[in-house]
Amino acid sequence: MSLKNIPDIDKPREKLMSRGASSLELEELIAAILGRGTVGYDAVKIGKMVGKVLMTYTYETTIRDLLEIPGMGEAKACQILASLELARRFPPPKMRKAVIRTPKDVLPFVTQYRYDNQENFLTITLTGAHEVVNVRLITKGILDNCQVHPREVFAGAIEDRASSVILVHNHPSGNLEPSKQDIVMTEELKKCGEILGVPILDHIIVGPIDDYHSI
C-alpha cells in the first residue's frame, strides 16, 4: 500500500505523535526520519530497505551502503547515519546513573565500539559515587593505531565535573593483551589525572570477543 493511501492516523509521523515512538515498526521509524520518499518509492518502502541494511551492518553502516538503496539520496543517507550516531551516544534510560563497581559493569556502555574495525578510545566520566555521567568518544584511529592526547581526555572530564574517569579502548584484532604503548599511555594519563584531581580508576581493553582486559 502506498503511503498516500494510508489513513493519517497510521502514517509514521502521525502514529508517533499519537502513540509514541515505541509504537512504530523499524521501517516506520526510518520513514519518520526520512519524512518523504521519491517517485516510485514512498518513505515506508525505503524504510524497509534501509532497515535490512541496518540489521546487517548496524553501526558499521556506511553512506555508500545506504546510497545503493533505490530512492536514497545523499541528504536522506546523512539523516539516517546522523540518527544512528545520535542513538549510539546516549545509553538507554535504565543505564543512566548506573554505578560502576567492577570493570565488567563498563561493557554495556561500549558494546557498539567492541566490533569496530578501527581502534576507538573512550572515556567514561563518573561522580563521586561512581555513577556514570557521560561516555565520550575521544579519538577514532586507523586499524590498531589510535593517538590520544591528555588534553582531549581530561577536557570532557572537567566539563562533566567528574570525580574520576575510566579509560576504554578496543583492539579490533581480538587480542586483548595491552601493548607497551597502551601501558605507557595509561601511566602518563594516570599522572595527569593525579595533577588535575581527576584520577584514572582503570583502563579497560575490549574487542570482538566476550571478554575484556583491565590494565
Descriptors for this entry?
5 strands; elongated; 40% helix; Cytidine Deaminase, domain 2; 215 residues; 2 domains; 8 helices
Outline the fold blueprint.
Layout: H1 12-19, H2 26-34, H3 43-57, H4 63-67, H5 74-88, H6 107-114, E1 120-126, E2 132-140, H7 150-159, E3 164-170, H8 180-196, E4 200-206, E5 212-214
Parallel strand pairs: 3-4
Antiparallel strand pairs: 1-2, 1-3, 4-5
Helix pairs in contact: 2-3
CATH architectural label of the largest domain: 3-Layer(aba) Sandwich
Strand arrangement, major sheet = 2-1-3-4-5
Number of DSSP helices? 8
Count of the domains: 2
Radius of gyration: 21 Å
Calculate the mean pLDDT score and round it. 84
Describe this structure in words.
There is one protein chain. With 215 residues, the protein is α+β, with helices and mostly antiparallel strands. The chain folds into two domains: 3-88, no CATH class; 93-214, Cytidine Deaminase, domain 2, CATH 3.40.140. 40% of the residues lie in helices and 15% in strands. The protein is built from eight helices and five strands. The protein has helices at 12-19, 26-34, 43-57, 63-67, 74-88, 107-114, 150-159, 180-196, and strands spanning 120-126, 132-140, 164-170, 200-206, 212-214. Strands 2-1-3-4-5 form a five-stranded mixed β-sheet. Helix 2 (26-34) packs across helix 3. The longest helix has 17 residues, at 180-196. The model has no long low-confidence stretch (mean pLDDT 84).
